[in-house]
Amino acid sequence: MPWCAACSRFLSPPTVKTDGTCPNCGNPVDPGRAHPVAADDGPHATEAAKDEHTGMPWHFWLLAGALALYLGWRAFQGVEWVWHQIGG
Length: 88
Fold this sequence. Notes:
The chain is mainly alpha-helical. The protein has 2 domains: 1-54, no CATH class; 56-88. 41% of the residues lie in helices and 5% in strands. Strands 1-2 form a two-stranded antiparallel ribbon.
């Protein structure tokens, strides 16, 4: 997150000017881990971000797996309930 020391506030990356200065005071900002995107990069700007993608964290996959198991069990219960309702 970009930080302006002169204004003592965080800035969203799109609000920082293309030359890396604060829109309020004009002083250079500390970019933090933000990646500057030039106006002429166009669709290639997202390719650079894709190259640095490290993947989803393990706890996301744990949650996704647990959700899949839960929804699968509930679907099974729904099908079983319908089967008993129609007299099967």
